[in-house]
Amino acid sequence: MGINTERDIEANLQIGPTTDGMVRLFIEGAGVEIPMDFSPEEAMEIAEEIKAAAATVSGGKK
Question: How far apart are CA 26 and CA 36, in angstroms?
């Protein structure tokens, strides 16, 4: 399984700040909860990667 493998799995994604000054991505689905904490700098890098991927698949359109 890789990033390009389609799966029929439902999950919820929540993103927000923590009281410890981190940015949390919280994924919940199929009886599993995955909290992932990132520093603000790491979160900005992840956001840029998401934006770059979206621009790639949309042909650079905003």
Answer: 6
pLDDT of residue 46: 98
N-terminal to C-terminal alpha carbon distance within the chain = 30
The HSE-up count of residue 35 (CA atoms within 13 Å, CB side) is 7
DSSP sequence for 29-54: ETTEEEEEEE-HHHHHHHHHHHHHHH
Residues in the chain: 62
* In contact, 11 and 26? CB cutoff 8 Å: no
pTM of the model: 0.80
